[in-house]
């Protein structure tokens, strides 16, 4: 029996160019005596990832570098990428003279044969990985029976942990096997699930001449079953588009009835218009040529070639593929617009004109708005993308460890994989957000964290918006469809209204009072009152609420999605994310969106929390309510003051009578916002049992997380304001906790991260709130004196000369200075009132109008990178700040 070909070298899958590269292996290795020039070309063509680049550079000698590069070409490059590789070799002949003779005999582009079914499966791989489910098993059997799958590979597919992993490994094998395996894959799919096959266009494969293994002129010497010994245990990475999550993105929902197709349903709506060709930039285009936007007048606006190309580049930089781009509402596109330099108002108007809340349409609108604002300067947009990429590399020490899984920009816009809450009977699976504890997420840099990604609760709310659109499309009557969609949107807006409501309104004075049911009108009024940026949109929706139609539903969905993005970012549920509001020029007010209210809540021991976690149930609304009551009963301090009567009865004891939990929730031991969500989940209203069940299950998870002992229950640093210094052109993009809150050496410590559009200087104002011996306190010492100078009425009016306060006020030290204000703190041992008096005395003779204000603790930061981290300390007497990543901090 002849020797088996090497793994990944099956003749039916190898194009002429890759075959030529392998046949010329030794000659290419001998010619590439210095590989840096070629690597630079491959990087510029976007066919070589940073991970592969670093792997090649890590080899000690030139010949090993060349062999490593060819190994990557052999195992990971598609035929299109190999074509780019050969083109780079041809353009490097002056640097590598030995290649001239070799390149004269390379296959010409006309000789390269296309593999339409392989390309079709490669384009649809991401969607199929999410939707195949248990169809993977029978398709695997058919491939095995036709000897297109080896025994070891079959076991490797079957032993994968999740349906997503099994589907991914099966598609991986088919792509390596080429046209025969891909054709058989679609034929098996038609047999197992005609509906899914029709959606995927599998019936079109009938018209495609599936190439046999003998197509290339070589005949296999033995069957695949006899060659299984050469198959490794670890799968080889292929070139088909990744989903952005390494094999653990498993989208599962409720089990369907037996008469429905067995493929996994998904809350994501996939665009049937998948791209038909690969991009020249080394990645599959996200946008098809037919994508258009709609102008305000209703006319269709077709994208130009430049706009489509730039939109593809942006989506690639954001690590979004075609299948996820249409359903990625979990990304705050307005925050991304600030990184590009567009104002929020400008970007929001562009998004409203585009009409649509999916990421693909919004990115397209944003690219068009940027080109319109810059006069069609495409290079300027590319420069911003490259600058963000360099910032990401600099923040990670110059190495991006996995470019396929990590975005080029320092923002991750992919929805997290949902965790599975199993009931233990019936195989019921409910989709919830991944349980990322604060310990995992804290301490990560902005460039590596999901600073603009929605939290677990945000994922649940986004799924409700998707269900609202699905309900509208599935309804036979348009009026009934709008009514059902608005019922679901009301739940989303109701949760947003709870996040916006002040604490005093959430703490109900009457123990028997109940939260009003979700209402679109009431929630829109709350948005109009509390969010100035969305006031106009909310008022417009209120005016059209009497006669809602499809356009109203689209606009309401867009507003709801943006509110979720802003209110439920990663970390916001645990007090580590701040909402930013522009109050004046270059001045930002920071509002923490948090469940970690400073209440003095003691928390439960780890053993009790573990037991509660094991006993929790969220199969249905009644079990969820019982689990919530069980946790609330356990959090009482003693049986005497436990209104639920469960303090001494153990974790599992829950009274059968209707419990009054308001007195416990209003006793000051719980955060007001969490209390309101718990009361909402405990309501017996039947309409919340279905669509809102995953949301209430997330409330249960939040309550369990909140019940843990944490320093955040009794102490919190609060960033109140950030003022950008040094003129316009730089903006604040994010403020968050970059490390856990800890008590060490008798002081409280926490690291806070600031993200700016580019390296900048800014002034931050911080205070702390804490509970001691049952009493609430606040501290903002040492305070600073702010001297404000009004702006000149016009540029033509010359400003009077300003007094040099640094020299005039010897009792104080200037912390920061801007064109309109100076901040001065008292020197050590000097009373703050003395500084205020000296400032007023120094400015008494000045002709320039001024105002003196007292502010809390402030510190100035001069950042050399886009992200700066500052360590805050509080020892009971005052706050101090220190830099942790090289930024200059002055207090």
UniProtKB/TrEMBL annotation:
GO terms for biological process: regulation of apoptotic process. The gene is CARD18. GO terms for molecular function: death domain binding; protease binding. Residues 257-285 are annotated as: Disordered. The lineage of its organism: Eukaryota, Metazoa, Chordata, Craniata, Vertebrata. It comes from Petromyzon marinus. It comes from the Eukaryota. This is Caspase recruitment domain-containing protein 18 isoform X2. Pfam families: CARD. Residues 23-93, 121-204 form the CARD domain. PANTHER family: DEATH DOMAIN-CONTAINING PROTEIN CRADD.
């Amino acid at each position: 029996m002849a020797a088996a070909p090497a793994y990944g070298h099956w003749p039916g899958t190898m194009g002429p160019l890759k075959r030529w590269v392998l046949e010329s292996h030794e000659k290419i290795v001998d010619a590439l005596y210095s590989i840096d020039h070629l690597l630079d070309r491959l990087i510029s063509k976007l066919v070589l990832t940073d991970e592969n680049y670093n792997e090649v550079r890590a080899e000690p000698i030139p010949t090993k570098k060349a062999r490593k590069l060819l190994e990557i070409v052999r195992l990971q490059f598609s035929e299109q990428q190999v074509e780019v590789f050969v083109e780079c070799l041809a353009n490097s002949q002056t640097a590598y003279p030995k290649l001239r003779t070799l390149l004269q005999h390379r296959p010409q582009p006309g000789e390269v044969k296309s593999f339409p079914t392989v390309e079709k499966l490669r384009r649809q791989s991401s969607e199929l990985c999410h939707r195949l489910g248990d169809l993977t098993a029978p398709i695997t059997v058919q491939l095995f029976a036709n000897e297109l799958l080896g025994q070891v590979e079959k076991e490797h597919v079957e032993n994968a942990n999740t349906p997503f992993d099994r589907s991914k490994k099966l598609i991986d094998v088919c792509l390596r096997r080429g046209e025969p395996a891909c054709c058989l894959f679609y034929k098996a799919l038609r047999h197992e699930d005609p509906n899914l096959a029709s959606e995927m266009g599998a019936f079109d494969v009938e018209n495609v001449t599936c190439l046999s293994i003998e197509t290339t002129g070589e005949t296999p010497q033995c069957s695949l079953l006899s060659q299984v010994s050469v198959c490794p245990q670890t799968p080889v990475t292929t070139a088909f588009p990744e989903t952005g999550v390494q094999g653990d993105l498993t989208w599962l929902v409720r089990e369907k009835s037996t008469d429905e197709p067995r493929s996994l349903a998904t809350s994501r709506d996939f665009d049937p218009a998948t791209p038909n060709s690969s991009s020249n930039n080394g990645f599959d285009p996200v946008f098809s040529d037919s994508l258009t936007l709609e102008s305000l007048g209703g006319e269709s606006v077709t994208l130009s070639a430049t706009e489509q190309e730039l939109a593809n580049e942006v989506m690639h930089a954001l690590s979004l593929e075609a299948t996820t781009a249409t359903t990625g509402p979990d990304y705050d596109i307005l925050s991304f617009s600030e990184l590009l330099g567009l104002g929020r108002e400008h970007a929001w108007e562009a998004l409203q004109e585009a009409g649509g809340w999916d990421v693909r349409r919004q990115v397209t609108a944003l690219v068009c708005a940027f080109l319109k604002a810059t006069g069609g300067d495409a290079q300027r947009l590319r420069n911003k993308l490259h600058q963000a990429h360099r910032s990401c590399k600099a923040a990670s020490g110059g190495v991006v460890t996995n470019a396929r899984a990590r975005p080029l920009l320092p923002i991750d816009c992919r929805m997290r994989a949902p965790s599975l809450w199993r009931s233990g009977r019936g195989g019921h699976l409910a989709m919830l957000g991944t349980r990322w504890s604060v310990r995992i997420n804290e301490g990560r840099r902005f460039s590596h964290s999901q600073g603009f990604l929605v939290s677990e609760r945000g994922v649940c709310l986004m799924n409700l918006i998707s269900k609202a659109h699905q309900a509208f499309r599935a309804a036979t009557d348009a009026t009934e469809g709008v009514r059902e969609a608005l019922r679901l949107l009301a739940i989303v807006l109701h949760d947003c209204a709870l996040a916006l409501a002040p604490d005093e309104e959430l703490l109900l004075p009457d123990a028997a009072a109940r939260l009003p049911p979700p209402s679109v009108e009431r929630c829109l009024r709350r948005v109009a009152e509390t969010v100035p940026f969305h006031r106009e949109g909310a008022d417009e929706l209120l005016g059209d609420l009497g006669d809602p139609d499809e356009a109203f539903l689209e606009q309401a969905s867009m507003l709801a999605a943006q509110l979720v993005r802003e209110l439920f970012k990663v970390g916001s549920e645990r007090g580590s994310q701040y909402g930013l509001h522009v109050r004046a020029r270059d001045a930002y007010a920071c509002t923490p969106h948090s469940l970690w209210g400073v209440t003095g809540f003691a928390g439960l021991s780890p053993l009790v929390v573990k037991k509660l976690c094991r006993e929790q149930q969220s199969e249905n609304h009644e079990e969820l309510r019982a689990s919530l009551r069980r946790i609330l009963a356990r959090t009482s301090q003693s049986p005497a003051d436990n209104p639920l009567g469960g303090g001494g009865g153990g974790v599992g004891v829950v009274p059968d009578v209707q419990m009054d939990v308001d007195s416990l929730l209003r006793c000051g031991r719980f955060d007001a916002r969490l209390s309101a969500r718990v009361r909402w989940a405990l309501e017996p209203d039947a309409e919340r049992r279905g669509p809102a069940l995953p949301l209430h299950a997330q409330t249960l998870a939040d309550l369990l997380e909140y019940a843990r002992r944490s320093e955040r229950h009794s102490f919190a640093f609060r960033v109140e304001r950030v003022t950008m210094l040094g003129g316009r052109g730089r903006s604040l993009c994010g403020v968050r906790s970059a490390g856990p809150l800890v008590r060490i050496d008798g002081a409280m410590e926490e690291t806070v991260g600031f993200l700016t559009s580019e390296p900048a200087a800014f002034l931050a104002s911080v205070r702390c709130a804490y509970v001691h011996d049952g009493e609430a306190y606040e501290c903002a010492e040492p305070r600073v004196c702010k001297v404000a100078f009004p702006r000149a009425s016009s540029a033509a009016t010359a400003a009077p000369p300003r007094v040099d306060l640094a020299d005039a006020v010897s009792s104080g030290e200037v912390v920061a200075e801007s064109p309109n204000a100076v901040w001065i703190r008292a020197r050590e041992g000097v009373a703050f009132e003395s500084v205020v008096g000296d400032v007023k005395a120094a400015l008494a003779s000045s002709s320039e109008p001024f105002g003196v204000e007292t502010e809390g603790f402030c510190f100035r930061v001069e950042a050399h990178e886009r992200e700066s981290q500052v360590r805050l300390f509080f020892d009971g007497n005052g706050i101090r700040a220190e830099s942790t990543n090289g930024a200059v901090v002055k207090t």
